[in-house]
């Protein structure tokens, strides 16, 4: 089975901003003729940057789930809710579909992103040839989810807005919302810093 040539062997380089395939003139100041962005064959320090961002995202994700996100005050009764307790409350109060949406967007999606990026980083570091096409598709899926990551924050706000409050009720945001927003932003940066060409790279690379 013949091996297809690499872009570097053909003297080609892709722009990381607009995707235009350009001639690799190997000049330090080379720029994309379409968007003017600097051209480089690899994302610098992709492996170490992605790991650092992924670990940082996980660290802020813990308080995002442990700390309350909202405080409800109703007739002197104060009730603090985390994401999970909010999901349980929605389910108990007869909104199972909304509870599933909140659980999926706020718990399942972030955890899957952690797992997917960790798998890509470990397998790429080992220069594994296992399921390379599937791992490339997995990365594209993580990128696609990244475009909708702020939906997680929106769903948390929706959780606050749709709870049935009494006339004298009051809702206050708590620090858990801030940590959750940081989780979304940092995981997006982590996926952007990962160089998908590492999936196909069986050679030495700089980190």
From TrEMBL:
This is Paraquat-inducible protein A. It holds the Pfam family PqiA. Keywords: Cell inner membrane, Cell membrane, Membrane, Transmembrane, Transmembrane helix. Its main location: membrane. The keyword Ribosomal protein does not apply. It is found in: Cell inner membrane. It comes from Dyella halodurans. The chain crosses the membrane at residues 51-69, 97-123, 144-168, 174-194. The keyword S-adenosyl-L-methionine does not apply.
